[in-house]
Amino acid sequence: xxxxxxxxxxxxxxxxxxxxxxxxxxxxxxxxxxxxxxxxxxxxxxxxxxxxxxxxxxxxxxxxxxxxxxxxxxxxxxxxxxxxxxxxxxxxxxxxxxxxxxxxxxxxxxxxxxxxxxxxxxxxxxxxxxxxxxxxxxxxxxxxxxxxxxxxxxxxxxxxxxxxxxxxxxxxxxxxxxxxxxxxxxxxxxxxxxxxxxxxxxxxxxxxxxxxxxxxxxxxxxxxxxxxxxxxxxxxxxxxxxxxxxxxxxxxxxxxxxxxxxxxxxxxxxxxxxxxxxxxxxxxxxxxxxxxxxxxx
Length: 297
Fold this sequence. Notes:
Blueprint: H1 2-35, H2 50-76, H3 83-86, H4 90-95, H5 100-139, H6 149-188, H7 192-211, H8 215-231, H9 248-253, H10 255-268, H11 273-296
């Protein structure tokens, strides 16, 4: 019974927001796809093999779709705490045999993990189209025959699995930031987000400049760094420049092994005081959102 109610709540989010989500995810790749025939593609002095170029385009498109979706979601999340009250649908949902916890949790999952994974999948599919267009633009249609599409397919499947896991861990790492904004928006309404931003900026600068204690910036950096490494490249192999263009063909062939190592590293980082402490803060703020709903409805 719980699963049926929960799936209904998640389906409600899909029906209400899927058009907007698809527009957000598809807009940038479609603009780039339409611009490729009329623009110039600068690759620098390094001559990339067709397989490497195609893989790079697919990867960049996937991450770009995720980034745009994250940006839009970050602005939208705070207002979700009071959405049902504002659009007067709260009476309908309260009439159903469900709890505030189920309703809020379903909303959070759909607007974070689900839409992030959706962006990754659609971004990868659009990346294939962009890769084909880029190869034709740079080297002609014959370059498509030089691409090892099977290797890209295997690497892409492994990459999608890694990014999907990363989306879950990414959300958990950033959950304290998401939930603080939602709780503040619930209790302080339109002043919630400005109040949180002001408290962080003013409090962080006062502690840092006057007391020499950068704890606010350290905590923010730890959560953001943890989220970034959870999403991809947990071992910092790419960030450290270990994967140069000349080594990319070998990297693609060993991509499955790299994904397993990177996923293991991302999971191991959850055994961190910052990760566990962030979940505690997120849970407390989740409780504040539920308390607001109960007291006001």
